[in-house]
Amino acid sequence: MRKILLSIILLVTTLSFSQSRGVRIGYIDMNYILDKVPDYAEAKNQLDQKVVKWRQEIEIKKGEITKLKDALQAERSLLTKELIEEREEEIAFEEKELLDYQEKRFGPKGDLIIQKSTLVKPIQDQIFTIIQDIADKKKYDFIFDKSSDLTMLFAAQRHDISDQVIRALTRAEKREQLSKKQLKEQDAKEALEDMQDENPDLAERQRILDERKAAREKLMAEKKAQRDSLVAQRKRAAEEKRKKTLEEREAKKNGTVIENDTKETEIKESDKKDNNDLESGSKELSVEEKRKQIEEERKKKLEERKKALEEKRKKILEEREAAKKAKEEEKESE
C-alpha cells in the first residue's frame, strides 16, 4: 500500500511539473554502484566470511540439540519423570540459547545489520553527495534508487546515471595522485565524458572516431614494421655485398702479385728460349733476320701482356667503383 501511495504521489508531482516545464528524471542502482567500489567489495567479502562462520556455529548448535532430543526419545521409557523433566529443561535452555544467538547475529538489531550499516553508510553518504552535485549540475528534478523499495515498472537506460556516480567516485581517488599537468588532462577527459553522457549521439561518434584512430594507428604500425624490415634487409644485403667486395679485392690483390711474378718468369724463360733458338738457328738464318724475328715476337708478347694488364686494371677499377657505390647506398639507408 505504501509503495502504491508513493507511486501515485510521484506521478501527480511529475504531471504537475510537466505542465510548466520539461521534467528531467534519472535513477541509480545502489547495489551496482557498491559492487564497483573496491573498498566496499573487500569489506563485504570479510563480512560474508563472518556470516558463513556464524551460520556454521548455528548448524552445530542445532545438531547438538537434535542429538539431545533423540537421546531423550530413545531413553524416555527407562527414565523417571524427574529425569525426563530435567532433560527437557536442558533442551529448552539450549533452544533458547540458540534463538538468542540467532537474534544476536541476524536479528533486526543484530551484528549483521549493524556491520552492514557501518560498512555501507560512509560510502552511501559519499554517493548521496555526488548525486546531489550531479542533480544540481545537470538540472535533474528526480533521481531514484532502482534497488530500493520503490517499484519501477519501466526505466530507460539513458536515464541511468549509475556509471556517472562510479566515475565521480574514482575521480576523487585519482585526483589525489595526479600532478598539475595530469589534472588538466583529467579535467578535459571528464568534460568529454560529461558531454557524452548528455548527448548519446556524441558518444557514438566519439566511439567511431576512436575505432578509426585505433585502425589508423594499427595500419601505421604495420607499415612501419614492413619499412623497418625492408631497411634491415637492404642493410644486410649491402653489408654482405661490401664484405664480398672486400674479399674479392683482397683476393685480386694477392692474385695480381702472383700473376706478375709468373709473367716475369715466363718472359725470362721466353727470352732464354729465344736466345737458344737464335743460337741453334744461326746456320739457317742470318743474324739480322733472327734478331728481327725475336724482336717482333717479344713485341707481340709485350703487347699481349700490356693488354691483359690493362683489362685487369679496368676490372679492378670497376670493382672499386661498385664497392664505393654500395658503401654510399649503405650510408643513405642508415
Can you offer a commentary on this structure?
- The protein has 334 residues and is an all-alpha fold.
- It has 2 domains: 2-198, no CATH class; 222-333.
- 83% of the residues lie in helices and 2% in strands.
- It is built from 9 helices and 2 strands.
- A two-stranded parallel ribbon has the order 1-2.
- Helix 3 runs antiparallel to helix 5 and helix 8 runs antiparallel to helix 9 (287-333).
- The chain starts with a helix and ends with a helix.
Instruction: Report strand %.
Output: under 5%
Cα(first) to Cα(last) distance is 83 Å
CA gyration radius, whole angstroms: 52 Å
Low-confidence segments? 257-261
The SS-based structural class is mainly alpha
What number of structural domains do the residues give?
Answer: 2
Largest sheet: 2 strands, parallel
- SSE order in H/E notation? HEHHHHEHHHH
* Backbone shape: elongated
Mean pLDDT: 77
In the sheet with the most strands, the strands line up as: 1-2
The number of helical segments is 9
Number of strands: 2
State the share of residues found in helices, binned by percent. Answer: over 70%
Q: What's the arrangement of secondary structure elements?
A:
Layout: H1 2-20, E1 25-28, H2 30-35, H3 38-75, H4 81-106, H5 111-138, E2 142-145, H6 162-175, H7 180-198, H8 200-280, H9 287-333
Parallel strand pairs: 1-2
